[in-house]
Amino acid sequence: VSFNAIDSALSSLKNCQSYINSGMDVATQVALDLVESFNDEEDVNNMEKVMLEYATMDRELNNYIKAFEETINQVKQEKPENLPDLESLAQEKFLEMQSKNSDSDLQKNEKYMYFMDQLKEMKKQYHGNDTIEQIDEDIAVTRSQMNFICPITQMTMKRPVRNKVCGHIYEEDAILEMIQTQKQKKKKVRCPKMGCSHVDVKGSDLVRDEILKRLIDSQKKQ
């Protein structure tokens, strides 16, 4: 039995995940724009609902792909004389996976967690119980105190990423190049921030710091 067509279809499904990821990135940017421009809280909450809908689609797609992959692997291993109804078998596995879903799963979605983290930081910067004048003053102080210089390039960062392990921030291209170079030498990367004891920086530990990027961009405009 040839499974080429099925493998091709699964590959197409996996490509759909990139569209979901892109949608979540856009929703995050829109929500941060809304907070920055002091829009109605309800608008921001609606963006959170959009993110949860995307997370639901992502979970459903992952379950569907996993169900079909398990079904195909099972059939390949057993090599039955008569090809079973693959769609029914996969659907059965899919429904079993879906029955184990819970709302807490959605809130563990990596992009949703990033969304909530960035939203919280943005609200801290622009909202609170203070007046707008006080907020502007606080932001100005934050900007003056915050170091926008990458510890690797010694230049102002354009695309800052934060290390989830130690909390230090670097220019994205610079840290990724360092990781790749050391990987070729089969060596680990020590955090380039002076005084940091973290000795194994991984690409998977890096997340974009949208708030810092906006502060840097804002300072450049002034």
Automatic annotation (TrEMBL):
This is E3 SUMO-protein ligase NSE2. One of its GO terms (cellular component) is Smc5-Smc6 complex. Keywords: Ligase, Metal-binding, Nucleus, Transferase, Ubl conjugation pathway, Zinc, Zinc-finger. PANTHER family: E3 SUMO-PROTEIN LIGASE NSE2. Residues 135-221 form the SP-RING-type domain. GO terms for biological process: double-strand break repair via homologous recombination; protein sumoylation. SUPFAM superfamilies: RING/U-box (SSF57850). It is found in: Nucleus. Pathway: Protein modification; protein sumoylation.
